[in-house]
Write a structure and sequence with these properties.
Chain B: It is found in: Cell membrane; Membrane. The complex is a heteropentamer, with one copy of chain A, one copy of chain B, one copy of chain C and two copies of chain D. In chain A, 68% of the residues lie in helices and 1% in strands. Chain A is an all-alpha fold. The structure holds adenosine-5'-triphosphate (2 copies), magnesium ion (2 copies) and phosphate ion.
């Protein structure tokens, strides 16, 4: 006990070769991880550049404000001067997509937040609740094209809405509902229990507590979740294809009458890509750029909200 | 204050309490929409599939190796080529997304500064939000030409066709990278620092902490991310419909054309099959098969999560 | 939109049906819109079959069809009290296409085509076909087959004309819902062959070449003259517009259908179809006016 | 470091002396509730379970009006559980279950016809960690008034509550700024103001100063003593000096959820009946 | 409740008496490192900053070999920070910055050529909350051995470590079950076993018993005293009785990151030089 078990008096040897070897391995691993991260970023950049290059020269103001045309020369800005009709564009589909998303947002907001509130704040911990939660998890994994079939059978056929804006919006609502519910639940769960206790402690009822304390706290998270889900919905092609979105519309649908036909950006892009003239690939790419811009804007808003309300500053 | 009797009863005029009860039912209804959705999906799919299976034996459907349901004189209804196509895409996509996504998650969670993480994570998440139809074009206009350029020049790499499983699998893989990386990163970040400190305190290097402590401790979350990403790949529609082709065949060569279940559904859904024909009904049989496959994946995922739930708080 | 305000016509017209005919109807609608901007027209491409389902349930006004209505569909229309009028509006030619570097095969007989495409075909390589052409040596390379998918009217028509029955076609061809994909497929493989709407060929002349068809009267290519004169056989066919009689009571709808017949010969050529002969158009006009007279 | 050194400062308590004689030790099983002048809260044989685990075992206690009653004991002995069972905050814990009787002014709060929301309007609560809402200081204090529909003259009521909570002076100019911008001690006083604004009868406090620094702690302690002039205060603390300083009565819980001794604070700290209490108080364990 | 009542049980300490004379109070500025028989760790004018906030201010301390040195002081005074600066765990906090010198066997651990990983292999650490890995008991203890490539005879080493941590008997039959299935006290002993398995020289403990119940706490305390027979132990505690019971030397930090007094434990608790230390120890604040 009087002599130290491991130390020699000459000082302490800190540089162990074993550690150095491990550090080299660690550097290698870090390189690997960094490279993997770059793969995703490079793919994103390649994709964006590819689309933008294809669309270059075809994306004009007129493209955003005119209805589509079957004749590819109508999209070429150099021909705008001498057309029997007007330039070709994406206008009705842009408006269609926006209306579609607005309706979807309204339905999703009520259903999604309502369901999340039930599950987080009201639901007792019993079999039914667990079943509902498991069911939601499962629905989140159902392929979107199956939702398309559902929308076709239930809304278009059974409920007789036809291939309408409302049918499309309801189908997209069901599609994103599971994700919105789960994310809203997470936001609600992130509200510290001490907030609820403080409210109950002052004699508030459950509903008062939820409305005045829990929801305001959870709103940024809920909004982020909804916007991100909507930005997924706006790009979905398969379900609205199944529901039967119009391939060509010359006027935007009317929001006041959501039972009419509609076209949407992904649908229009898909149609352009199928047309014979090779130049339509450029038109489709221009459409994609518009769609991606809308989508990135929505993402940016979501990120802004997330950061602006991030409790960590 | 104490002499007068106090009233603690539920008085009828207490608006709060009534609103409370009403709110409860409304929110329950919202949550129940999700159950109704599942019931409706199953009902729609089963109803259509019953018609189909009254004409086609289930055994032939599940074991047949040839899928040509619309051939007039001698149709065959073996779903295996479609399932095979789906599996090729799924496995290929997973081969890309799992290593890349996991390494990315490790980088973001363990190495990147909060600043880098707060930029890179949402940027990568954009990949998951890009409409799948865009990935389809990207595959055709960018990935396939690269593969064709490599084909013949690189040894062992056969010449890929215009439509091939590989290009589709690559874009689907890119698309699901963020599902793997973000969810895994969440799981890794939720590993408490106390575990990292414990390992550092024992003289572990960062590499060892990341791979031997953080990774195993977050394994259930990571596996759940894999499963989620894989079910997304199974259900992926537009990208494969555009890039993988439309030839249902059992081939081992990923550079050949194939067809997935979803792509077949798009084909029927947009085509001319008359409602009620066996070809149209096959849509529901395939839809049901797809639903069952993703359902099983989800059950598996839930099982993994509950079985290997992280027990630290 | 800055033109067409002067028109007093307004209303909503819903067109659905064939994907193939869609571009023609869409172009007619486009032109009509520029003159009557208060008429809201939507054109969808659910496919001929799905389109008839809606048409016969009174959900659409006009039905694009790449084939004639079948008995089941006609019965359904009758059950729902939907009366209709069939108008022949364009001619389509199906082109058989090959890679531009394919210098051995310029023309195929219908029999050869049938041997290539039929179900259970024994033709795998080009060399399998040259036995009937003793002085030619075709490469012993595997043929890649491309065509429209089984859900299309184009597929129905091709299989029926070449192989004798709808759906009689080899298993290992790649059926695509998008003719551009067929072009891409053929363009990407020196040994490929594909069939699809002839209009797509003319938009992609640099990328693919035509194979002429010999129906016993020598080799004929699908060109405007040969198709409009109906000498390109058997791969040219008429396409139809089905008009819901009930809708003819509406003024803007009548105007649109009349406009359709006036313009379809020209629009057909713009979107890769062929014009029906003048006599046919005249008879269709008469049919229409008779029907209108009956309704109003 | 003994209780002697820090004798409870009962001087400011009006009722302290009268209560002296009513002291009762539950160890001997005699329940002297009738002898307590004005019992506000009485618990009779109260058991609380979390699932299958019993957290409180047969608690009998009579809490007098307008005094400070301290609950002390080692961690996990059930102090918070008892506190929460008074205003039925335990209802919010799914697995919590209550047996026995707890009455407020003679009415068993676990009777069928008692609305816990109405009960909590009479019995305010302050928590261990300051938990102001992420709202303005004003809205924090006004919150209870609003949910209880006491929205007449809110402004005046808010100021009074802040005044009583000894916070008004410090925040007078920033009533509109967020409650979260205050220091920990100020936040806790804000929570106290919020609890007293709707004018409850009883205030429950669960270790209200344990997250605070010494200066803030002593402010809270002063405040508690003042509050007892108007309210009945029940306070949980793990700090024995604190209990000795501010309370009139002290209840000692020990592991297993037993109330081992309940008596005047002086008595408990100077001459406890139970050896275990003595051990605990002199720091032999805990 | 005074330190007298709970005099440090130094009887089990072999070296305690010899060290008595080496006591040094840093208050007077004299740094008696040369007088300490076997200084293992010496800090000279050590400052630690988090960003712009200074958490430690000019700490001079000489920690003797194979004794228990306790660090006490009110919350936030920098005890944990000092502990973490010994084995450079502060390196893991991005904003932490260290000035001055901290030497281990005479070598400044903040020198360029010191690898913190190698350093931590000599200086083990036990944390406030038990933090076993979600692995089996065996793998938990073996972890350090494996990362340090001491993988010969792992089985034996694991058993020895568990034995020394007074845990072997309780878990002998369940070495393959998860470390998380143990009780809090057992988990903490598991963490101690894990820390001592690779045979470090120094063991740092940051409030190792604060999350535990009294029984588990006393087991840990016994263990700490035993460990000091073979290891140098530095322990942070907020429980003064605990410091008095188990340590040979006590360092008192006060707010602002100052080391106010460092001396033999008996001295500190019976007769501290500084009034502020006396106030703190007698519970006047904190
Ligand atoms: N929500 C809960 N669910 C399950 N058990 C609980 C819950 N809250 C408390 N308990 C258990 O009940 C017992 C008493 O807990 P309680 O919180 O009342 O103790 P306490 O005396 O307040 O302790 P502390 O001083 O640590 O706050 C403990 O064993 C605790 O584990
Ligand atoms: N990671 C960190 N980042 C920024 N500041 C920190 C960090 N850790 C500690 N501090 C600050 O440094 C000061 C000293 O903290 P330290 O944790 O060393 O105190 P302590 O004496 O251990 O307190 P306690 O008894 O509460 O554990 C405190 O003011 C604290 O807020
Ligand atoms: Mg408590
Ligand atoms: Mg600390
Ligand atoms: O879309 P089709 O015209 O080929 O039916």
């Amino acid at each position: 006990m009087s002599t130290p078990p491991t130390t020699d008096d000459s000082g302490f040897e800190f540089d162990e070769s074993a550690v150095r070897r491990k550090r080299r391995l660690g550097k290698l691993f870090l390189g690997l991880c960094g490279t993997a991260t770059l793969v995703g970023i490079v793919a994103l950049v390649a994709l964006l550049v590819d689309v933008v290059v294809e669309a270059w020269g075809w994306l004009t103001w007129e493209f955003l404000t005119y209805p589509p045309s079957q004749i590819v020369e109508h999209y070429d800005p150099s021909n705008y001067g001498d057309l029997p009709t007007g330039p070709g564009g994406l206008y009705p589909a842009i408006v269609g997509s926006i209306y579609l998303i607005v309706l979807t947002a309204i339905f999703t907001l009520f259903l999604g937040v309502g369901a999340a509130i039930y599950l987080e704040e009201y639901a007792p911990d019993n079999r039914l609740t667990r079943f509902i939660e498991a069911n939601i998890t499962n629905l989140a994994g159902v392929p979107s094209i199956v939702y398309g079939l559902l929308g076709l059978a239930v809304f278009v056929r059974a409920l007789q809405t036809g291939a309408s804006l409302i049918a499309g919006a309801l189908t997209l609502t069901l599609l994103i509902l599971p994700i919105v519910i789960v994310q809203s639940q997470e936001s609600l769960r992130a509200v510290p229990d001490s907030m609820r206790q403080a409210s109950y402690g002052t004699g508030a009822t459950k509903w008062q507590t939820i409305r005045n304390v829990v929801l305001p706290e959870a709103v940024p998270g809920i909004m982020t979740g909804i916007i991100l889900s909507l930005s997924r919905a706006i790009g979905e092609t398969a379900p609205i294809l199944m529901v039967g979105a119009a391939t060509t519309m010359f006027t935007p649908p009317e929001l006041t009458d959501p039972t009419g036909p509609f076209s949407a950006m992904p649908m229009q892009i898909f149609e352009w890509a199928k047309l014979p003239d090779g130049d339509f690939q450029h038109v489709a790419a221009a459409g994609i750029v518009v769609l991606l811009t809308v989508l990135l804007l929505m993402n940016a808003v979501a990120i802004y909200i997330r950061n602006a309300y991030d409790p960590r500053g | 204050m104490s002499s007068e009797p106090i009233d603690l009863s539920r008085s009828g005029n207490d608006v709060g309490t009534i609103g409370d009860r009403v709110a409860r039912y409304v929110f329950f209804a919202c949550a129940f929409v999700t159950v109704a959705t599942t019931v409706a999906i199953i009902a729609v799919l089963v109803e259509g599939a019953i018609d189909f299976f009254s004409a086609v034996s289930i055994v032939e459907y599940l074991t047949g190796t040839n899928w040509s349901p619309r051939a007039a004189d001698d149709p065959s209804f073996g779903v295996l080529p479609l399932v095979w196509g789906t599996l090729m895409i799924t496995v290929g996509a997973a081969l890309i997304a799992v290593p890349v996504g996991t390494l990315t998650a490790i980088y973001l969670s363990e190495y990147a500064s909060p600043r880098v993480r707060s930029v890179v994570k949402p940027v990568l998440e954009i990949l998951a939000g890009i409409p799948t139809i865009v990935y389809g074009f990207f595959a055709i206009s960018f990935i396939t030409p690269i593969l064709q350029g490599l084909g013949g020049r690189v040894p062992l790499l056969p010449e890929p066709g215009t439509f091939n499983a590989a290009a589709a699998a690559i874009v689907v893989g890119i698309m699901i990278i963020p599902m793997v990386s973000s969810i895994s990163e969440d799981a890794m970040s939720s590993v408490p620092d106390s575990l990292r400190n414990a390992a550092y305190g024992l003289g572990a290097t960062k590499f060892e902490v990341s791979t031997q402590v953080v990774l195993p401790a977050s394994l259930s979350g990571i596996v759940a991310a894999y499963i989620l990403a894989v079910s997304r790949a199974i259900g992926e529609t537009m990208a494969v419909a555009l890039a993988a082709g439309a030839l249902p065949q059992l081939t081992r060569n990923p550079f050949e054309e194939i067809q997935t279940m979803t792509a077949y559904m798009v084909e029927i859904g947009t085509g001319d099959a008359s409602v009620g024909s066996i070809g149209y009904q096959s849509l529901f049989a395939i839809g049901l098969t797809l639903f069952v496959m993703t359902f099983l994946m989800n059950i598996f995922s839930m099982w993994v999560r509950s079985r290997y739930r992280e027990e630290y708080q | 939109i800055t033109r067409g305000e002067s028109s007093h016509l307004e209303g909503e017209i819903v067109i659905d049906g064939s994907n193939t005919l869609l571009p023609n109807s869409a172009l007619v609608a486009e032109l009509f819109m520029w003159e009557n901007n208060q008429v809201n027209i939507s054109v969808s491409g659910a496919g001929t079959g799905a389109g008839f389902q809606q048409f016969c349930r009174d959900e659409t006004d006009l039905q694009n069809a790449s084939r004639e209505i079948n008995d089941a569909e006609a019965d359904q229309c009758a059950d729902n009290g939907v009366e209709w009028l069939e108008l022949e509006v364009v001619l389509d030619g199906l082109a058989v296409m090959k890679h531009p570097d394919n210098d051995w095969c310029d023309c195929l007989t219908v029999e050869e085509l049938s041997r290539m495409w039929e179900r259970g075909s024994d033709v795998e390589t080009w060399a399998d076909l040259d036995d009937e052409r003793p002085d030619e040596e075709w490469p012993d390379e595997e043929i890649a087959f491309y065509g429209r998918d089984a859900a299309s009217g184009t597929y129905d028509y091709f299989t029926e004309q070449i192989n004798g029955a709808v759906g009689n076609i080899r298993d290992d061809f790649s059926g695509s819902p998008d003719t551009n994909n067929i072009i891409r497929g053929v363009r990407g493989n020196r040994h490929a062959v594909g069939f699809g709407g002839a209009g797509y060929y003319y938009e992609n002349e640099d990328d693919v070449d035509l194979v002429a068809i010999d129906n016993g009267n020598g080799c004929v290519e699908p060109e405007r003259e040969t198709i409009e004169a109906e000498t390109y056989q058997p791969l040219s066919r008429p396409m139809y517009l089905y008009v819901r009689m009930g809708a003819l009571a509406r003024e803007e709808f009548r105007a649109f259908v009349r406009f359709y017949l006036e313009n379809t010969q020209e629009t057909a050529r713009d979107v890769g179809f062929y014009a029906v002969p003048d006599e046919t158009i005249d008879s269709q006009r008469e049919k229409l006016e008779d029907a209108i007279a009956g309704v109003t | 470091m003994t209780a002697n050194g820090e004798a409870p400062r009962t001087v400011s308590k009006s009722a302290a002396d009268d209560q002296q004689s009513t002291a009762t030790s539950v160890d001997d099983g005699s329940l002297g509730s009738s002898r307590v002048a004005d019992p506000v809260i009485e618990s009779r044989d109260l058991d609380v379970y979390y699932g299958d685990d019993q957290a409180l075992d047969g608690i009998d206690m009579t809490i007098p009006e307008r005094q400070v009653t301290a609950l002390i004991g080692p961690s996990g002995c059930g102090k918070s559980t008892f506190l929460r069972s008074i205003n039925r905050m335990n209802d919010l814990i799914d697995i919590a279950r209550v047996d026995g009787e707890l009455s407020f002014h003679g009415k068993n709060v676990y009777d069928e016809d008692v609305d816990p929301v109405a009960l909590r309007r009479k019995i305010g609560m302050v928590f261990q960690k300051p938990n102001p809402f992420p709202k303005s200081i004003f809205d924090n204090v006004a919150y209870g008034l609003r949910v209880q529909d006491q929205d007449e003259n809110v402004e005046q009521q808010v100021r009074t509550a802040l005044e009583r909570a000894a916070l008004l002076e410090e925040v007078e100019d920033q009533l509109d700024s967020s409650g979260l911008d205050l220091s920990g001690g100020q936040q806790q006083r804000l929570c106290i103001a919020r609890a007293i604004a709707p004018d409850p009868e009883v205030i429950l406090m669960d270790e209200p100063a344990s997250a605070l620094d010494p200066v803030a702690t002593s402010k809270i302690e002063d405040l508690v003593e003042e509050l007892a002039e108007e309210y009945t205060v029940v306070i949980v603390t793990h700090n024995m000096q604190q209990a000795a300083r501010i309370s009139d009565k002290t209840a000692v819980f020990l592991t297993g959820g037993h109330l081992v001794e309940f008596d005047d604070t002086d008595k408990i700290f100077e001459n406890p009946e139970s050896d275990r209490v003595e051990d605990y108080i002199t720091g032999k364990f805990g």
